[in-house]
Inverse folding.
């Protein structure tokens, strides 16, 4: 992976408590890794198709005023949440998901950091719809910070990074990202391997994926038992006092879109700490 990763971090905010926690964490990562940081807010005011020309002119004036107000709000939010944060500020005229993906491409962001609202519902907890779509569509790693994990994660040093790993290419990529991040933060890296009933024990190979300097910081936590991977990852995150969880994910094609694996979704939804999801693009089959 790029030794200078991350080079540019994008942090979209909606002025909520989770996005405040995300901004504090993004600012900390940018300072530790010497990355550029862009703070953005999406401001979208769609025009009804039946508006007359004069109504459109009024709407344009209202939108300009709205953008100015949003700019002042963004500046105040950044100053209050992360004093001294040297982030570029952007107000983007687009729906949130489109704005985030578009701005990410334009700023060449290689890491997205965003807050997410936990919502009650099926499977006990659902991510906010924006975070769900970004995780599904982003081609760069996405760090999600839930409201319940935001305050402690953003205000104390990240001293321990936990990375669940299997023998897949997604697992290998995630471990390399986790090692780079742990090295930048001066944190300890724990590589966790869970052997499920249908799997094989490959933990001895894990640290061979890392460089010698990264391998010296890698402590393999051996868990050799049958069980559900998501449950073991979540329980280890709680018991190990980890501050950040890094998990690999393989995008899978489904009906002309992509989905994430069940284990990844469950871990992101229920993790007590921030989760960095490192995505691999979908693998297409050729006829």
């Amino acid at each position: 992976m790029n030794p200078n990763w991350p080079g540019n971090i994008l942090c979209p905010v909606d002025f909520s408590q989770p996005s405040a926690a995300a901004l504090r964490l993004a600012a900390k990562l940018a300072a530790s890794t010497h990355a550029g940081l862009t703070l953005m807010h999406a401001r979208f005011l769609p025009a009804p198709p039946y508006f007359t020309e004069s109504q459109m002119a009024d709407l344009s004036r209202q939108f300009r005023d709205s953008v100015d107000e949003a700019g002042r709000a963004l500046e105040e939010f950044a100053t209050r949440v992360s004093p001294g944060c040297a982030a570029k500020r952007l107000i983007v005229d687009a729906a949130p998901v489109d704005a985030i993906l578009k701005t990410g491409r334009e700023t060449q962001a290689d890491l997205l950091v965003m807050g997410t609202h936990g919502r009650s519902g099926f499977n006990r907890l659902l991510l906010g719809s924006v975070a769900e779509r970004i995780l599904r569509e982003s081609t760069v790693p996405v760090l999600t910070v839930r409201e319940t994990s935001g305050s402690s994660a953003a205000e104390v040093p990240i001293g321990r990074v936990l990375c669940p790993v299997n023998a897949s290419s997604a697992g290998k990529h995630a471990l390399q990202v986790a090692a780079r991040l742990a090295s930048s933060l001066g944190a300890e890296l724990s590589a966790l391997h869970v052997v499920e009933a249908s799997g094989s024990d490959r933990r001895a190979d894990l640290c061979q994926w890392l460089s010698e300097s990264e391998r010296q910081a890698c402590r393999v936590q051996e868990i050799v038992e049958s069980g559900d991977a998501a449950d073991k990852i979540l329980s280890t995150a709680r018991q190990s006092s980890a501050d950040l969880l890094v998990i690999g994910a393989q995008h899978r094609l489904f009906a002309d879109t992509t989905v994430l694996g069940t284990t990844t979704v469950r871990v992101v939804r229920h993790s007590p700490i921030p989760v960095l999801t490192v995505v691999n693009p979908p693998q297409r089959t050729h006829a």
About this structure: The radius of gyration is 20 Å. The first strand starts at residue 8 and ends at 12. Residues 53-81 form the longest helix (29 residues). Residues 153 and 243 are 6 Å apart (CA to CA).
